[in-house]
Amino acid sequence: MPTTEIYLDCNATTPVFPAARDAALQALGAHFGNPSSSHCTGLRARALVDDVRERASRLLGVGAGRLLFVSGATEGIQTAVLSALCTLRERRDAGERVDGPLLVGATEHKAVPQSLAHWNAVLGLNLPIVEVPVDRHGLHDMAFLHAHVANAGLLCTMAANNETGVVSDIAGIEALLKACGSRALWLVDCVQALGKLQLDLQATRIDYAPFSGHKLYAPKGIGMLYVRAGSPFTPLMVGGGQEAGQRSGTENMPGIAALGAVLRAMEAGEGVVFRSHASLQQARLRLADALRAAFPGLVFNMPFESSLPTTLNFSVPGLSSKALLNLFDAAGMRISAGSACSAAKAEPSFVLRAMGLPDWQAEGAARLSIGALTDDVQIDEACARIARCGEALQCAAPAAQALGPAALAAPSPDTQDSTLTAASLPAFLHTYPNALLVDVREAFEHAASQDHLPWRAQALCNVPLDHLGQHLPAWLGESHRPLVFFCRSGGRSLQAVQALRARGHGQAWHLAGGLALAEMA
């Protein structure tokens, strides 16, 4: 495995900024006070909270609006949706006609439409939830908005999309709302905008804007919610009176302190601590050129001119999203197939489908996203590894005809005693020096990572899982030799062990957690 991991999934989360980590540790240590306490220790904690809020308010242009500390974007979205829908119910209960739609962009993060559906039902409003379509560039259909927004109760859009990086035409949407005389409340998901787009919220008609710290080098568990001055507000959490009664619960002091350190770095100015917008654009172009050179036929699924300079969404003909992720992972590069929240479902990208892209692009899409702390050394190494990934695809010898899942079909025996961990594997290999390590990943994954595998002195071969059946007779004839199967996560190697054990090979083992946990060890 590579000695250094190249992390290229910053839209999902980011590492913690060293100054943010130090600030969090200080809040856990010397500055541990409860900001609601009236003694000196509590007053110092309160001063820290106030300082971070003031800093965030300046950077975001909050003006007379309010800025609440919350646990993250999901809580911010829930609070905003609840606030808007409670107001709609109050209007209806007061005799006002409230039957207009709740509008939500077709490419919104699933937290938004699911929150809408939940609170719409819980509050008994049962208003129609209508998707606002987008064009092939991921931009909202203004004609559709014009036809539906005048009577709408709530409009939900994004500042920038998490999968494609497409930046919404916020100014155009605002102009349309004004032109139509719409009373719709407006929620704008600003999670991907923090630190990437200039924001002056007080100068807009935006009613609610959630933010998440871990998308910009703060820890998980801290976020913010902007509420425009005069916009309706209903607390999601009550009971302790914190945040001026607007969000109860003792403040997350380490998270707030860490977020403050990030905001301080942002306030230092573009390019001083974090990469500038122009520098991020250059880094993205270098990565894009490397991808084009490595993968003939590759297409980008987002327009460069109207997307964040941190995001590349691409598809390669003939390769699935899973194959691309496995290939990059083998080379020590961490990318994703889209939203991290949907990664386990292995479904085509709903964002790309909403954009009207062909099925092969939606089904084979991968997302590479850098951050403001991704330096040139990492970009250089990423470009070199991308080139090696392309070579691995071309040079990996074509395997024999796959026998398919039927070749492995067998009752799944209890494999509890056939599991090795990263911690127990070295001792096992010392005890059984004749053990054969079998990489059941695809040939191109093996080729991309073979120079970095930690078991160079051990007998090792690559037999993709679908081709395992071809080797079963030889291995069964040598059933005394220990076989240790491994893959990226442990899923494919477990299937291999089940097949061998079901056929009487008692010396078949698998590496639980795969190379991912072996790297941790």
Tell me about this structure.
The chain has 521 residues and is α/β, with parallel strands linked by helices. The chain folds into 3 domains: 65-249, Type I PLP-dependent aspartate aminotransferase-like (Major domain) (Aspartate Aminotransferase, domain 2, 3-Layer(aba) Sandwich); 273-395, Aspartate Aminotransferase, domain 1 (Alpha-Beta Complex), CATH 3.90.1150; 405-520, Rhodanese-like domain (Oxidized Rhodanese, domain 1). The chain is built from 17 helices and 17 strands. The chain has helices spanning 18-28, 40-60, 73-93, 111-122, 142-148, 170-180, 253-267, 277-294, 321-330, 350-354, 359-363, 376-395, 425-431, 443-449, 472-476, 491-502, 514-520, and strands at residues 6-7, 66-70, 102-105, 129-132, 154-158, 185-189, 208-212, 223-227, 299-300, 311-315, 333-334, 365-369, 419-420, 436-439, 460-462, 483-486, 508-511. The strands form 5 sheets. It has a 5-stranded parallel sheet with strand order 13-17-16-14-15. A 4-stranded parallel sheet has the order 4-3-5-6, with helices on both faces. Helix 16 links the parallel strand 16 and strand 17 (508-511). Helix 2 crosses helix 7. The protein is globular. Residues 399-407 have low confidence and may be disordered.
